[in-house]
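Entry 14. Ran structure prediction on the chain below.
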Amino acid sequence: MNRISLTAVVGVLLIVSGFLVPSAMLVGSIRTIPPNLSNQLIVGGTIFRVGLVVWGLLFLIVGSWPPSKLRTQASIPTHSSPFGSAVLIILLITAFLMRLYQLNRGIWFDEIATYVSYMHLSLGEILTTYDNQNNHLLYTLLARLSFLIFGESVWSLRLPAVLFGVGSIWTVYLFSCQVATWKEGVLAAGFLTFSYHHVWFSQNARGYTALLFWTMLSSWFLTRALREANVGLWLMYGITTALGMMTHLTMAFGVVGQAIVYLASMSDTEQKHRREIFLGGLLGFAVAGLVTFQLYSLVLPQLFNWYGVSVSPWQGRIAVMPWKNPIWMVEEIVNSLNIGLGSGVLVVLAMSVFGVGLIDFARKKSPIVILFIVPVISGVAVIMGLGSTLLPRLFFFAIGFAIIVVVRGLMLCGDLVSSRLHLDRARAPLVGVGLCLTAIIVSAISVPRAYLPKQDYQGALEFLREKQRPGDVIVTVGLAAFPYQRFYKVDWQQVASLEELTKVRSRGGRTWLVYTMPIVLQSAHPEIMKSIQIDFEAVREFPGTLNGGNIVVALAKS
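Output, structure tokens:
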């Protein structure tokens, strides 16, 4: 009776608030309303109020829902061990220290865009601003909090990525204990700890490690909820999924895979428990959807660009045609694996081992197969259908599943080797563990490369300050312009056309030109790129770990 009364009171309060609180007052309590965003923010406030009413109705329904319809079963123990937990703690500490190293070095374009565009905003302004996909909403909020606590710096901008990166290693272990064994979970955690790609993304001030964290954690809650029929687990699934959606909308691809796992589980469940699974899943996915709606409600008009208001310099960024080609994406992934593994031969071996592990999980009807394959395929299909760019980093959330599959493949290869060597059962698993440890060592060799600058704008700046003489002119083009003007705040001239470049060169004196991402420059300004190739000579190239992101300093020919 108390539970029903409490939920009823909360429900009534939410409904009354949704009907009575004016939208302008609601938004005004969060931020100052600028004239150019007034309509969008007021509509967003109205949508938020609609969400409050829906939540109120949900509380009233839940309050009157007989408890017997959603029974809570006892928790089923996971396949973990004290030793595995101890090793995991050591790995997490190691991972944290590794990701703090050189954290202040070599910021790249998208990080600079986040720094310049959002870090001066209040928390309320960030919560009500979605002017571009570059704003990973939850990450931006946490980065701003980091600024407020630790001060403004590149490392504080990246700190949330570090914490989510370390947290994602823990969630991969948790999930592996559900679908595999604690030994495989520890080995998967070890792989991520000493992974070039994981270190790189953990030092990248974007929401990708957060997305990996929420993907693995929500999948862990999902698999446990399906096994244990626990209402609390379904609620946690919904909340963690919504937080993933708040981090990046590509979380929706993971939800598609999770929904298929849920439907498949219902079909494989005995008739007497099917209704319980159905109701629990209905609750979990409803919470995920409603929380996501509420979190995005204030920015939905900006998300869909209602009223045609553009407030971001990043809207309308040039579309690079090769980036829309799935073949290009596959090539990029292979090249990236080549960095992490050191050679093409090892890449082929890794893919073969992955195939062995995936087949084994498929034979055992493990949910990991669906959770890996479906989001990737649906993501590629949707992105291509929308005509957007197929950037490999959009699928970084799947690396946790991929590593677990690779570990299973290596363990199976170890079983095969041990059977050929006629080892006894006690020693047989050690071969697979040895193969995994060898692979981890090979992966660790490439980690130092992750500490190089992602883009070395600073190096090019210092070089030109040393080389510039009186009368010299320095110009920037394409994606090199914004960082130098808005982040480094130098007075170099930006040119956006061949006519402007020709005019600058006609003034006399030496003309220096700085550019990056030639594939983007070729798409946006092919005439400038042609002039660079003919009329300029590259003097110095500053490499970075971002593929194609080297900073090139060129000097006009006499």
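The CA atoms of residues 232 and 472 lie 67 Å apart. Will compare against last week's run tomorrow.
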